[in-house]
Design a protein that fits this description.
There is one protein chain. The chain is built from 10 helices and 8 strands. With about 230 residues, the protein is an alpha/beta fold. It has a single domain, classed as TIM Barrel. The protein has an 8-stranded parallel barrel, surrounded by 6 helices. About 45% of the residues are buried.
Length: about 230
């Protein structure tokens, strides 16, 4: 066996982003993340401060989204949201690129959009994941975004919001791993709901996944490890 339970748990950003989640469900989701020792909770911005309080003193990081899910907020609005998130205790910010500007080939705008959030976050000692929403892009767009993220020293590039027309696919993950520098990690999101798929992404070099199916996935992981142990 080439992994332990903790290896899998610490790859997971537990997603609490469905707009219909109640406060009780958000609270329970934060507790589930602590109980399982995942990497982070990615929660709706309005509940981030409470999430940060609940996770205080644990290894689980509070995270949230910027420009979610379409990426079409102004740069100034994204910057303001990032500043507020940092004040609320966010340690990792998942920002969505401006998909319209990517498809328009306005790379100067795209660069400024990403750079603004990276600079604000890094100045506070926090990290940034840049969401491409690959389901709407061609491979040349994905490669160019990787190059920009390399140059701006983003911490992760990420496949998807989970709210587009498609999620992470292995071909995209391979492309992203191949086109990112050593200082940029890769996160898969959307459709990573079982251990087999997670292990496939891990084998490619992916270091994080986003999922709302954390409990089911980690139950499967425990069963797999117990079966392998005899």
């Amino acid at each position: 066996m080439d992994f332990e339970f903790r290896d899998i748990a610490t790859m997971i950003d537990h997603a609490l982003l469905n707009p219909t989640l109640t406060m009780a469900e958000l609270e329970a989701g934060c507790q589930l993340a602590v109980d399982h020792g995942v990497a982070s909770v990615c929660i709706m911005p309005y509940y981030l401060k409470r999430c940060s309080d609940l996770l205080e003193g644990t290894p689980v990081k509070p995270s949230t989204t910027i420009g979610f899910p379409h990426g079409n907020s102004t740069i100034q609005t994204k910057q303001s949201a990032a500043v507020q998130a940092l004040e609320d205790g966010c340690q990792e910010l998942d920002m969505v690129v401006n998909i319209s500007q990517v498809l328009s080939g306005n790379w100067a705008y795209v660069r400024q959009d990403i750079q603004t959030i990276v600079e604000v976050s890094h100045a506070a000692g926090r990290k940034v994941k840049v969401i491409f929403e690959n389901c709407y892009l061609q491979d040349q767009h994905k490669r160019m975004l990787c190059q920009i993220c390399n140059e701006l020293r983003a911490d992760w590039v990420k496949t998807s919001t989970g709210f587009g027309t498609g999620g992470a696919i292995l071909e995209d993950l391979k492309l992203m791993v191949e086109n990112t520098a050593d200082h940029v990690q890769v996160k898969a999101a959307g459709g990573i709901g079982d251990l087999k798929t997670l292990l496939q992404t891990r084998a490619l070099g992916v270091t994080r996944i986003g999922t709302s199916r954390t409990q089911e996935l980690l139950r499967e992981c425990r069963r797999h490890l117990e079966s392998a142990a005899g």
